[in-house]
Structure formats: structure tokens, C-alpha cells
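User: Some background: our group keeps a shared notebook of sequences we're curious about, and every so often someone picks one and asks for a predicted structure to add to the entry. Today it's my turn. The entry only has the sequence so far, pasted here. Could you supply the structure so I can complete it?
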Amino acid sequence: MGMKPKNEDGASSYLLDDQVGYLLRLASQRHALIFQEHISQDLTPTQFSTLMRVAEHGQVSQNHLGRLAAMDTATVKGVVDRLRQKGLLETLPDPNDKRRSIVSLTQAGQEMIEKLHADGAAISAATLSPLKPAEQKRFLDLLKKLS
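Assistant: Of course. Here's the predicted structure to add to the notebook entry:
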């Protein structure tokens, strides 16, 4: 059994307010509220990320899209299905492998991307607003290192 860290008085020095997981969760909750306030379309953060990845890559297999957007197979299928229902994505069978689906933006999806880029920039700016520009860059560099 490991020993719990103690302060000079011999009391436990573990404070929830200083724990990385707790702080990440608070930051994530704050970011989620900012996302909801600034997103101009009826999209979840996962749907937004999916559209951004498809826009970046053009046509992409559903499997690869899941890896690009950090989703498991079942999740990406559900997200793609919902975005197809909204008329933003389309899927076609892969001509080289009929078991695979190729995902791409519809015309409506393409027309929305520029606005979503602006939304994303506003969301990031609002989320990072408590930090000075140099702190913002350092924070993002550190988050990339953690992820």
C-alpha cells in the first residue's frame, strides 16, 4: 500500500481542488457551455468534430474518420448516421471494398463549413480568454502533449 502525501502537520495533503482530473473536468464543463452558446447550428461537439475532419480530408472511410475524430466504430457510425439525417454528410460504398463506406460532405455540409470555422474560432477564443496569448499557446502545447 502506498502512503498518502502528508503536510507538515501530518494531515493528508491531498486536495481535490489541486487534482488534474478534477480541474480538467471543470475546464471541460466550462468549454461545453461556451460551445453551446457559440455554435450556430444544431450540432453536438462530436458532430462538429466529425464535420471538421471530413472537411479537412474530403472523402474518408468511416473507419478512418473514427480514428481521425477519436471515436470508436459504434460511435462514429451513430454520428455519421445523425449527420446524414441532417443532410450534412453522405456515404457511398467504397469502390475498392464494398464492406467499407466512404463519407463526404453534402452540398449543404460544404456550405456550412465556413460558418463552423468561425464558430470554432469564437469557441476557442472564449474558452482561452482568461489566459494571456503566450499562456494560451503554452496551454495548447501542454494539452497536445497530454493527449
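Suggested note for the entry: Helices lie at 20-38, 45-57, 62-68, 73-85, 107-128, 133-146. The chain has a mean pLDDT of 92.
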